[in-house]
């Protein structure tokens, strides 16, 4: 299975590409914004595609040609304004979904925010609410996009080394999770068709990642 990793140069994305390249049966195509980011992925044996998420659907769809799945890990980051939140976390995500369909790709894994329900938007701070709203509508678009989707809602992200064990369910108690473990959850979801059509929260726990994904 060839996987287009959107946001490959991000903290989760780098882990995803590395894990895919180390796995059996999966290979990565890293979608990056700048040519100078390519070398580190090519050193892993991964293909690269230089595309900006603010480009049009046709341009993004070219990056998805010939792949079997798309993983969307991109995010505007904590230091950008509301405009970039809309352009990347909402519009960029939706354009990628439409690009996947245009390229004939059915499998789509989306990394969302921990809680994107309507109540979470209302409860969020003024500065955080636009981000939650963007993720909410991206999630809803994907669920209606006629794609074989998995939506993953990770807890508070850390750069700790992954434990390889998580707690995953439709709703879990808020907690943290290493980015490396989120990447492993993504790969496990790609490898297990039982995750198709599923949406779940995931935090650090005591269950092996493959077993946790299989039990959703």
From TrEMBL:
Q: Which residue ranges does the record assign to the NAD(P)-binding domain?
A: 7-192
Top-rank taxon = Bacteria
Please give the Gene3D superfamilies that the UniProt record associates with this protein: NAD(P)-binding Rossmann-like Domain
User: InterPro entries of this UniProt entry?
Assistant: NAD(P)-bd_dom, NAD(P)-bd_dom_sf
User: Known PANTHER family for this protein?
Assistant: FLAVIN REDUCTASE-RELATED, UPF0659 PROTEIN YMR090W
Protein's name in the database: SDR family oxidoreductase
This protein's species is Halobacillus salinarum
Taxonomic lineage is: Bacteria, Bacillati, Bacillota, Bacilli, Bacillales
